[in-house]
């Protein structure tokens, strides 16, 4: 946030200087980090190259975070009154937030640490997505839709009124490392929550339902949780068809280390 404030201040100073001099500056395109690409939520080996296109071997003070926010644009139908907030503190973090084909969506991504990855793809209206990462090597992915890329803003083919949230961190003020969280919601008015406190935890939620809730809370290390709600109906092109199941509830609470839990409801 400090960088944003400094940037705004610099722009204001430049604007005053130009006005006083009577010169008119043309808008200039600048290089950004569009092209962060798809965020890989799988663990990355330390021997693999950094996927950040702006990456160069760091010094002790270098910051090379990359974020990409897409709300409408070429080839997609834009919506109205969407809000996207990305806050990155640390190094080598990548965040990508896409909100298209809908209205009044709210997306928040907060990364504090090193080498974290977060991606959210939202098709529909009135959806809320929260991704909070603190530590190193965490991976978080959210997809909200009915039929992927249906190009019907706010229509029956998109996912509407869903809430998806992910938090990856350590206990207390410590960092959490190498956690993986993934949420796929196909339907309307679903709630999914993943809270990972510790290291090397893995969680997956798949909701092909309406009016359903799935909760995963993992406190410890090396825990695995998987929740599948609704029937995995497959339409053309291996894209889930409209959700048919409704009103399902699931909660997984794991405290300790190396636990595994699997919940399947009408799948």
TrEMBL record:
Residues 1-19 form the signal peptide. The keyword Signal applies. Keywords: Signal. Residues 158-175 have a biased composition (Polar residues). Residues 47-60 have a biased composition (Low complexity). The keyword Oxidoreductase does not apply. Residues 41-60, 151-182 are annotated as: Disordered. This is Curlin associated repeat-containing protein.
């Amino acid at each position: 946030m400090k960088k944003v404030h400094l940037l705004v201040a610099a722009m204001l100073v430049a604007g005053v200087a130009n006005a006083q001099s009577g010169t008119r500056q043309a808008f200039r395109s600048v290089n950004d980090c569009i092209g962060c690409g798809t965020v890989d939520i799988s663990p990355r080996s330390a021997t693999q190259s950094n996927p950040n296109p702006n990456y160069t071997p760091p010094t002790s003070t270098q910051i090379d975070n990359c974020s990409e926010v897409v709300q409408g644009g070429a080839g997609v139908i834009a919506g109205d009154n969407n809000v996207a907030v990305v806050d990155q503190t640390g190094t080598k973090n990548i965040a990508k937030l896409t909100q298209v084909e809908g209205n009044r969506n709210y997306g928040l991504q907060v990364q504090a640490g090193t080498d974290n990855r977060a991606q959210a793809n939202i098709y529909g209206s009135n959806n809320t997505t929260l991704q909070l990462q603190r530590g190193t090597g965490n991976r978080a992915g959210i997809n909200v839709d009915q039929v992927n890329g249906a190009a019907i803003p706010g229509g029956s083919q998109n996912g509407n009124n869903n809430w998806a949230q992910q938090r990856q961190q350590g206990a207390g003020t410590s960092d959490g490392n190498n956690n993986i969280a993934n949420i796929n919601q196909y339907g309307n008015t679903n709630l999914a929550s993943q809270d990972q406190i510790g290291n090397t935890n893995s969680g997956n939620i798949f909701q092909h339902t309406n009016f359903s809730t799935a909760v995963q809370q993992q406190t410890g290390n090396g825990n695995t949780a998987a929740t599948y709600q609704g029937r995995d109906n497959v339409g053309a092109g291996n894209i889930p068809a409209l959700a048919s199941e409704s009103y399902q509830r699931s909660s997984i609470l794991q405290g300790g280390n190396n636990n595994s839990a699997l919940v399947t409801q009408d799948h």
